[in-house]
Amino acid sequence: MRSFQLAPSLLSCDFTRLGEELAAIDAAGATYAHIDVMDGAFVPNISFGLPILAAARRASSLFLDVHLMIQAPERYLEDFVHAGADGITVHVEATPHVHRAVQVIKSLGKRVGVTLNPGTPLEAIRPVLADVDLVLIMSVNPGFGGQRFIESSLERVRTVRAWLDALGSSAELEVDGGVSPHNARALVEAGATVLVAGSSVFGPDGPEAGVRRLRESVL
Ligand SMILES: O=C(CO)[C@H](O)[C@H](O)COP(=O)(O)O
Ligand SMILES: [Co+2]
């Protein structure tokens, strides 16, 4: 089985206890914290922005994996880097300048990711595939946590895995949305290397149990 990392999404955490939630996922063995930034324009929801990212940075040394669901993300890339992002992922649908955004994130010395909505043809990422360190396959329509996994995403993961292997790329292949113990193993078998999970990690029995259940479901 391919090795994989878990990236708990803070979207589902208790923000009154942000530092403790970060410490709990760190202790449970997660290596990334996934940070969902939503602007109410690119997606129909507003989550949080730079101050929460900066607070997470002060509270934790986990890799902060920032998923920008905002229009024209190129306007804010430097700001997100200054606030503490270790990696930034941009949507191809959010800007006509995705190539430029990728180059800017690289020039800022951060891990660069590209992503796309479930309804966007995979071909849209091909022009930047060789330039990125991470491809994120959205397995829900972005905007909200706790949605149901879209089954056809599995085939999209297989396709991008084949493209990356054909390129000889070591880019991470991340999946985000509705990831749970029911589908985690199939996603890793399909070629995913990073699984984002919000509602299935920050559940009623706490993030340690959530991380453990996901890990055990893949082993
Ligand atoms: O990008 C996202 C939504 O747009 C979130 O990362 C994602 O939905 C995680 O939450 P869950 O695991 O509950 O689906
Ligand atoms: Co996300």
TrEMBL record:
Pfam families, per the entry: Ribul_P_3_epim (PF00834)
Cofactor names: a divalent metal cation; Co(2+); Mn(2+); Fe(2+)
EC number(s) from the headed UniProt entry: 5.1.3.1
Catalysed transformations (reactions): D-ribulose 5-phosphate = D-xylulose 5-phosphate
Cofactor comment text: Binds 1 divalent metal cation per subunit.
GO MF annotation, one: D-ribulose-phosphate 3-epimerase activity
Active site residues according to the UniProt entry: 36, 176
Presence of keyword Zinc: yes
Family the UniProt entry places it in: Belongs to the ribulose-phosphate 3-epimerase family.
Cited function: Catalyzes the reversible epimerization of D-ribulose 5-phosphate to D-xylulose 5-phosphate.
UniProt xrefs under NCBIfam families: PRK05581.1-4, rpe
Protein name: Ribulose-phosphate 3-epimerase
Native organism: Deinococcus yavapaiensis KR-236
Encoding gene, per UniProt annotation: rpe
